[in-house]
């Protein structure tokens, strides 16, 4: 006993000794009122300083786990380790359908297992080598020295005030009329959408969206039991005639649209179509949830204003976004910009569910934006991604015989193969050659898209982009009988 | 025009100039194809360097907002600012009952407005002056230099692996059998509880809990439409006879218990009672959600093991906790420790709702724990809070004629006045004298507790603790007719 004590990590030795003794006591290896070795004995036995042992014993005594008797030494205190016969519940039986569905819809678990050395087009996360870690550290230190204690204590459910002000102004510069609007900071885009859906009454129980669309949004719609009406995508955005027909036929609680660098197709909705969308939904009094996630990653073409700029002082659009696709996704910061009254109610929901979003994340992000690092970083990121984007487009044109390729910017392209070609079978064959991509069917509302796939290029080296696309193209030509 | 440009903050001048011009264009003050002043003119007009203007113009051009014509200058590009007649939706009508209830139950909005200079016993948040900001900065810099790019990119829904490992070991040292158990990291305790409740099937639709209990938990139970069965608190924990009777009469989906430094009473459940609780709930096959939030703030008495240690390899307890009441609440990090299979399903729910908890928060917290700063800080915090705790207890005994006072540790005391005395009326009177506290009725499951209140002392100066309690006592004696 005692001589099996080992240092297991970098923590101070006295802490590790304390933990070791505590564990022995908790597990019943040392019994109540049992005498512990004297500090001198133990320090000799373990070849550590006597002070270390003294510190560990003092901590254990303070925690009430051992007690000292003057002149006699240290003894194990009363620690209830009595175990009742343990019972086994069947947790699966106790879960509800939505939770089992969440498990079933969890794409990450269905992903083909990626192995080291493979070329993976799965990710649309930013390239971490681009991260501006030094300026991020600077922003952290600046903020901490200004108000470290405030940053580390409880904040407001609505969000960190300077960040809210910054973002309101940021959206105003984009052309949004922010009078009577307000912002709620959320744990990224996804929490924003979830809080909104959780808060809306199910009147028709129906949502209208682009088809295909962002799978995390689709998953939330399904978990909330919404009926999903998907509308086909044309090269300049959603098919407006189909929208009109749907709105005449049925009622909808809201529409969910991604007008810029749409996920997964990468399509940018034209400015004419944006206008038509607003006209149509306004007429039918249907709110639009606008997903602005990728808006900043524009490589060419003229500027396009968010849908929200078109409604002026109106309140029918809920804009949800984050900087996760450009800046730092590890920081979970997103925001909802919407009608003031609506934000007021969503704020209560936010408080009930998660109190507030990490103040640290918000404060450092604010400082980073405020110091102008964002502008600089965006320029760098755009130029790197633009190059990859053009390379990937060119390679697809050269090697893959597709029916349609879309992607006007952003971090991915979307490929539609000829009818009848199954992208999942293609994926299986490519996997054997060390290349993986995202099958497109997961983005479809109605089981379609079996002949489509998404190519995320943001985290790949130039040569891997070309080589990977060539392998996909060759496999398609040679192994798919097409 | 242009000469109303002002520097409004600390960001680089060219960024502010760019934003100013962008806003003018978006708002329609500058029209499509309108010529902008030459860089030389504008630099002279605004008394800024020509380079600054060049940078701003270059950015605007890259964003597609202006275009350059060689030899002719810069012109406003095509920016759609067309406004359709804006519509006004009535959002309140479109929200569901739970959301309106969340708004109604939002205590922060009902709080009596605190004014500067008042003595407020409302908060049970940690004292921020105690925060160990320097070591926190150190932990941040250490982690960032080791893997800054990873910390800033997407992480795992389950949580940051080193932190999970650390916490598993931390709970093992407390005596928990962690075989077949796992951890899910959440945005604080509250998200943990919300995800769990959202995932459980409503079989009986009933929850059993202590009465009074933590109001954020009560709020979640109500928002999820659960029927709440509150059980009276005795000085050594929940009334076990009442529990037995309830379990015989009705079925429950789960029980929610706070065995250590219970909120709001501060009571610590005795080790005999812990044992009896486990026996009883095991017999009836009812899972227990154990709230470990304040467990570390023990000032005296013998060590008490979490309920979870009593079930051995069993899986009937879901332990949810965070370090928010001791370390840094601004970091939203909590965890659920439970059956492996259950965690697996909750993880899918977590991913669907918020992707994952801030990696930055998790990684810095991990480093802080790993470097042994937590142990040191805990010692300091305990000794400061212990002093305040003893002072507050002493002052209550001296000045307030209560029926019962509870609080075995932690950051607050709970006072029960004689029957018939309304704590909210007392609060109104004390408010006029500059003292506020938390009325106890908000913690009650059944509309009771009108004669109770909670005194949080963690953020008050010693003299304010005594003076505030004296004012409450005097008001009670002189102005309440008792």
TrEMBL record, chains A, B:
In the C-terminal section; belongs to the class-I pyridoxal-phosphate-dependent aminotransferase family. The keyword Amino-acid biosynthesis does not apply. It comes from Lysinibacillus xylanilyticus. The keyword Plastid does not apply. The lineage of its organism: Bacteria, Bacillati, Bacillota, Bacilli, Bacillales. This is PLP-dependent aminotransferase family protein. PANTHER family: HTH-TYPE TRANSCRIPTIONAL REGULATORY PROTEIN GABR. Keywords: Aminotransferase, DNA-binding, Pyridoxal phosphate, Transcription, Transcription regulation, Transferase. Residues 11-79 form the HTH gntR-type domain. GO terms for molecular function: transaminase activity. InterPro entries: Aminotransferase_I/II_large (IPR004839), HTH_trans_reg/aminotransferase (IPR051446), PyrdxlP-dep_Trfase (IPR015424), PyrdxlP-dep_Trfase_major (IPR015421), PyrdxlP-dep_Trfase_small (IPR015422), Tscrpt_reg_HTH_GntR (IPR000524), WH-like_DNA-bd_sf (IPR036388), WH_DNA-bd_sf (IPR036390). Gene3D superfamilies: Aspartate Aminotransferase, domain 1 (3.90.1150.10), Type I PLP-dependent aspartate aminotransferase-like (Major domain) (3.40.640.10), Winged helix-like DNA-binding domain superfamily/Winged helix DNA-binding domain (1.10.10.10). Its cofactor is pyridoxal 5'-phosphate.
